[in-house]
Each structure stands twice: as C-alpha cells, then as structure tokens.
Amino acid sequence: MVTLYIDADSCPKNLRTIILRAAAKHNLTAFFVADRPLRDVQQAYEEHTAALRKQAKSDGVVDSLSLRSFQSNIKNIVVEKGPDSADNWIAENAENPAIAITHDIPLASRLVEKGIDVLDERGTTFTQNNMSERLSIRNAMTEFREMGVFTEKHASMGPKQVKAFSDAFNTLLFTFLKQ
Asked: Is the residue at 67 inside a domain?
C-alpha cells in the first residue's frame, strides 16, 4: 500500500483536506511533517480512529483492549523548528511505494532520486526527466533574488489550482491503488 509524505509546513489547508479525506477513505498511512502541531490533521486522526473503532464494533469486536488497537494511520510528525527540518525528516524516512507532496524543489529532487513520486501543490509531477531542469531553474532564480534582480511572486491558490492538484493527486493515487 502506498504511503503519503506531506511537507505540511507549506501545504495549504485546503489541499491538506483533500489529502486527509483520501488517507481516511483508503486507510492509508500519511505523514504530515511540520514544525508545529496541525489541528486539522489531529482532528482527522481522531475522526478516522473513531470511524475505525465503530466499524470494528459493528464487525463484532467487543473487547475494549482490542478496540483501542484500531487507530488511524494519519500522523502529524512535529519536527524541530529550523530550515529544512521537515524536509530532512521526509527525505530520511520516505520509502517506496510512496507519494510525496512538496513545493520545495531540493526536497523533490532528493525524493525523485529515491524513486518516489512527487507532486507540488499546483499538481505538477516531478520526475527523473524534469527534475534537473526544475532544479536548475530554481537555483538560477535563487541567484537572481539574492542579487536583487528578481522577486518571486506566486499566483494565488484559486479553484483552478486546487482542482489541478486534486486531479493530479487522485490520478497518481489511483495508479498505486490499482497495483
């Protein structure tokens, strides 16, 4: 079964909602890695755990100790504050089969090298074929910003971008679920 790794420090809440629903629906392990607790992730964990225990009861499990063993695999991993702490946790712990979600190009590059499928929050898939170009562009833009030549402006996250992410995420997820 596929595992989800989410760079949750920068993942918009509306996209986390999409990921959380999929994780609960398909009973997936999902690591939301951030330098702070995320209320929506904790709430999803609690709701999914309650649903799993309710289902176990309806399946005939009555022993309270056994019922407590039913827990959601939705996890909020809280790492130390600091640059790249969430990225490092994901890069060190991610194992295939997996889907990672990040807009951090260096993290995406590290994960692609491990053979992990990576999406950004706009629905772009990072692959072996496009990663070196994306990394080069990112490095050039960083140099331009440091020289004061260019200031980066991101388009706002509107319904089109959310739909693009959702479509790409669902397509990739169902590819794994069919295997």
From this structure: yes
* C-alpha to C-alpha distance for 70 and 62, rounded to whole angstroms: 12
- In which domain, by residue range, is 160 found? 3-128+156-178
**CB-CB contact of 91 with 111 (8 Å):** yes
Task: Give the number of other Cβ atoms within 10 Å of residue 5's Cβ.
Answer: 27
pLDDT in tens, 25-42: 999 999 999 999 999 999
Query: Which residues lie closer than 8 Å to 66 by C-beta, 6 or more apart?
Result: 56
In this predicted structure, what is the pLDDT of residue 22?
98
162 lies in a domain?
Answer: yes
CA distance 72 to 47: 9
Read off the CATH number of the domain in which 89 is found.
3.40.50
Q: State how many domains the chain has.
A: 1
Among the residue ranges 14-28, 90-104, 143-157, the one predicted with the least confidence is 143-157
Which of 50-76 are b and which e, b meaning 16 or more Cβ less than 10 Å from the residue's Cβ?
A: eebbeebeeeeeeeeeeeeebebbbbb
